[in-house]
Design brief:
CATH class of the largest domain: Mainly Beta
Largest sheet: 6 strands, antiparallel
Shape: elongated
Number of strands: 12
Number of domains: 2
């Protein structure tokens, strides 16, 4: 009788395992494999189930994040002309309502003259963000979060995701029209787009 030190239990091993014969060596290896893997403690079983469950949940969240990234969540709304946009100076902002009259939005014109528009509701607790022309960002006064004025991505603070972007269309005479909305996705998904 031999003691299996890994499992801590007695095993009956064939007496001729110590020979150099390849058939006996294969039988010895098969015996050791069977002895090691036929008994499993409750603790090892529960650990295996726990690790497998954690792996499945992690894989599911990764797949969901990739699916969210691949399918842009753009919504079309009736076109709306933003009054006064054609008179905006670079580095300025106009507040307007879109897509509904109670949805506050902001139109920004950057130093290059390009227009960007975002929903003003902070993704943290819903406070209205304000444009800070000195720092060229959108700031939330409630908890000091900040968003990039070019992309709407979170620069710092507690907001969990970017601002929702308003889709713009340029028309004749320099008119700027809001034509849709793109819902901001989580920062974990968009983290690879941030400059390092």
């Amino acid at each position: 009788m031999k003691i299996d030190s890994n499992a801590g239990i007695a095993r009956n091993a064939p007496a001729d395992l110590a020979t150099e014969d390849p058939e006996n060596i294969a039988a010895a290896l098969q015996f050791l494999w069977d002895a090691k893997h036929t008994t499993i403690s409750r603790r090892k079983f529960c650990n295996g189930v726990l690790l497998t469950s954690a792996g499945v949940m992690l894989a599911a969240s990764t797949v969901k994040a990739k699916a969210t990234y691949q399918y842009d969540s753009m919504m079309a709304y009736p076109p709306f002309r933003i009054e006064g946009a054609e008179k905006m100076m670079p580095g300025s902002a106009i507040y307007f309502s879109y897509p509904m009259r109670y949805d506050s939005a902001i139109l920004l014109r950057d130093a290059c003259g390009e227009y960007r528009a975002f929903n003003r509701m902070c993704s943290h607790v819903g406070c209205s963000v304000e444009f800070d022309p000195r720092r060229s960002c959108l700031e939330c006064p409630c908890h000091k979060g900040a968003y990039d004025m070019q992309t709407g991505l979170v620069l710092y603070g507690p907001p969990p995701r970017p601002l929702d972007q308003i889709i713009l269309q340029m028309r004749a005479g320099g008119q700027v029209w809001a034509v849709g909305k793109s819902v901001g996705r989580s920062n974990e998904v968009l983290a690879h787009l941030r400059p390092k």
